Amino acid sequence: MLDRSLNPMPARTFLRADRLPVEWRVAPGRVSYLETVTLMETRAAQIASGAAGELIWLVEHPPLYTAGVSAKSADLLDPNRFPVFESGRGGQYTYHGPGQRVVYVMLDLTRRKRDVRAFVCALETWLIAALARFNVEGQFRPGRVGVWVERRSPAGAREDKVAAIGIKLRHWVSFHGISLNVEPDLSHYNGIVPCGQTEHGVTSLVDLGLPVTMDEVDAALKATFIEVFGPVRLAAGPD
Length: 239
Fold this sequence. Notes:
This protein is α/β, with parallel strands linked by helices and about 240 residues long. It is about 20% helix and about 30% strand. Helix 2 crosses helix 3. It is globular. The chain starts with about 20 loop residues before the first strand and ends in a 5-residue tail after the last strand.
């Protein structure tokens, strides 16, 4: 089990020694989930064999649910609402859909650091730094992977999840990754118990009162990825 009692690691601690740039690719339109799985499986194997370099792939999906390896059937509240896909990533049920930036993270931990806890902390650090670009204070919570925000009102305080993390490693190459809620339809989460959490809600940047665009979020993610993981190069040609 990951030790969530530790703070997310500071920036510039998960760099690869050779500092070769990571390919940064943004998919136009909406990409099917099965298409992403096929690409991830292929690319992760190529990275592990040395046939290809690391890749960060930003996509947007049509509405769907995915079940991680710890998903409980009782947490799928409305199985007929959207397509449901079994996923090899860590975690439980989550939602992907329009208005949410999903980032598939294919990095070689053998060339970085073979430490799963440190890797998850680096992903959290990345997300928290990106949120800070919009003056949002993202926080981690012991025992709860992902990034959370505190919301206060006359009725009291609550914590909502704004970004999720679910990864898988094969031969120390990561795939699957993170999702950040920009402007999704939050009612779509009603068909599941998100990440098995019944006592906390979900939110988005727009729900927090920030009318940011996906392009603005992508720019923040790229800038802060460089701070935490090192340089990138933009993919050439069509996705």
